Amino acid sequence: MCYALAVEALQALADPTRRELIGLLAGGERTAGELAARFPVSRPAISRHLRVLRESGLVSVRADGRERHYALDPEPLRRLDEWLEPYRDLWAQRLDALETEIARGRRARTRREPT
Amino acid sequence: MCYALAVEALQALADPTRRELIGLLAGGERTAGELAARFPVSRPAISRHLRVLRESGLVSVRADGRERHYALDPEPLRRLDEWLEPYRDLWAQRLDALETEIARGRRARTRREPT
DNA sequence: GTGATGCGTAACTCATGTGTTACGCATTAG
DNA sequence: CTAATGCGTAACACATGAGTTACGCATCAC
Q: Alpha-carbon torsion A5, A21, B86, A14, what sign?
């Protein structure tokens, strides 16, 4: 019943830059500098983003000389996945309803956002 | 490659009150008043949260007289689920690594948050 | 030792977000 | 018609967040 804590990471994932960092780290360990070089913002800004990700448990750091190697920790994502689970039924249901409509011969338009 | 857009809803889900609203709506349609009554904040505050959820596609509204019935739309959650997919391998890998450790006879502590 | 490099933190500014109260508008009750 | 109800919006206050530059502190190169 600790759903609130289980999805603390959502706050961290709300920022697009941080999601991109996560995406980069999914490819393997990177140093702070390597990561910062990929973004149009200043290095301290990335440093702060990395701190947020660290504090929410999404990444871990390994000091190596004067370099800091960041790595993705998938645990919070796994928990998010778990949090999502009760909702899976809902879209399954919806798909079922859709299939029913199709079975009835109705025209089933797939909803697609215009923008 | 439109991952950024696919997870727009993360911004909406970052707020705990909105997540709770989502949770309530998972149980079925509710009116704005019914929802607002459940929270310690003012009704206009909830109204604004509902607006955010509406704009991110997480809920839909149906006007019925002077009542507004809100319902959960699971589509953005489904997309979030999709976004999560590439990362599933990561925690699967980690579990594999863990099993390997166990097979080696090492002590494998399950990580558990103290709070 | 001395200077360059890698990276985090501090201090500050500006934009955004979340809460409040006051209000308006439509709908139902009498 | 008149009053009450349900709910959204406007206007404002305050907290939070993300960016910047300046700085400090290790570590590596020489």
A: positive
